Amino acid sequence: MLSTVQERGIRFIRLWFTDVQGFLKSFAITPAELELALDEGVSFDGSSIDGFSRSHEADMLAKPDPTTFQILPWKSGDDAVARMFCDIVTPDGDAFPGDPRHVLQRNLEKAAELGYSFYVAPEIEYFYFADASPEPQVLDRGGYFDLTPLDVAQQYRRSTITMLEQLGIPVAFSHHEVSPSQHELDLRHTDALTMADNITTTRLTVKEIALKHGIHATFMPKPLEKYDGSGMHLHLSLFLGDENAFHDESGEYGLSKVAHGFIAGLLRHASEITAVTNQWVNSYKRLVSGFDAPTFETWARNDQSALVRVPATRKGKIDATRIEYRSPDPACNPYLALSVILAAGLAGIANNYELPPEAGSEILEMSESERAAAGIRHIPHNLADAIKAMEGSDLVRNALGDHVFEWFLRNKKREWARYEQHVSRFELEEYLPVL
């Protein structure tokens, strides 16, 4: 890495990490400081980062992870810049409990103690708009899988994929999504920590390429009222060494007891973890009926409205056996979201949760009383409901740690309080003329 920096004329190395909400933070060092940074870390003021330290314990160290070194492809020539993700530690060298990357590492260590490796492949949806104004202007009227002049943003997607590949992030698929000006990038599966880094990098890359073309890209879950919002469906699997722990040829639907437990854990703890996987007020405008988004805590094989879906796999493709968790949106903090998802799944395995019966689209036609009798629960209706469910969850507290758990809840409660005071255009148009 040091040789590459010298040979490629890298002027700056950007050190990346995220705050508790998942916003990317960064500062730059010069090549002269790189060796010392790798050995000792770089000091910075943690009190300025949301969810980090109080002012009287502000000093933090960012320790670069050399395995994440990549040259940023949108910077070149005399302006060549590289990046590395960092682990945040205290001046004493201890892992900082408020670092989202550390939160995920800690949960992955728990899985490793049980022999499991956690793999993830996301479908990341987003929108292109003419600008960032509060009146979104779409660039096309294309629909799902369109490959016509309607999809004017093909070149933006292609440029983004090229940049991601140069960053070492392979893209398995890309296409126009169902809503106007909506697109999807499916990243090839890898281990959860690498994938959380990749999701963070992908979001920045999409925005950088959009900016270069004079447009705006957004991962806002529901920017257009009358159209589907953007989700981030997560394809998940556990491996025991080289063997897919979710696969059992003799099991029902080819799923093992481990897979059954993992799904049952996700369903039982879904309400508790939703504030993390869907952390914004706007997130819940997507999770409503009538659109391609889950609304009930159910699982199915072929129902797109289920919270957990079991995709069909081709015969003989054992490693492809997986489950799909469909509620998260692309604006979540991936480190925290993957942490609580893994914790819920492992709880289902450890405690032998019973997998409820498969539910199809018929639940949408059932009455509330019929769903209650069948034990079918609704996903939290809004951020306030999700916060309440999270607040009483020992599972989420243990997964995030006390520091992140408390900071996250305080932050979300402030967001909900601001939203409750807001007078929306709907209210003004609906009530002002008649009341």
Features:
435 residues, alpha+beta, Ubiquitin-like (UB roll), Creatine Kinase, Chain A, domain 2, 2 domains, 10-stranded mixed sheet, 6-stranded mixed sheet, 16 strands, 35% helix
What distance lies between the first and last C-alpha atoms, to the nearest angstrom?
67 Å
CATH superfamily of the largest domain: Glutamine synthetase/guanido kinase, catalytic domain
Low-confidence stretches: none
The number of helices is 13
CATH class of the largest domain: Alpha Beta
Tell me how many strands there are: 16
Describe the structure.
- The chain is of the alpha+beta class and 435 residues long.
- It has two domains: 2-93, Glutamine synthetase, N-terminal domain (Ubiquitin-like (UB roll)); 105-425, Creatine Kinase, Chain A, domain 2 (2-Layer Sandwich).
- Helix content is 35%, strand content 20%.
- It has 13 helices and 16 strands.
- It has helices at 2-7, 34-40, 100-113, 154-166, 192-212, 257-268, 270-277, 283-286, 334-350, 368-373, 383-391, 394-421, 425-431, and strands at 12-18, 24-29, 42-45, 59-64, 70-71, 81-89, 116-129, 171-176, 182-187, 190-191, 216-218, 232-240, 243-244, 296-300, 306-309, 323-325.
- The strands form two sheets. Strands 7, 8, 9, 10, 11, 12, 13, 14, 15 and 16 form a ten-stranded mixed β-sheet that branches. Strands 1, 2, 3, 4, 5 and 6 form a six-stranded mixed β-sheet that branches.
- The longest helix has 28 residues, at 394-421.
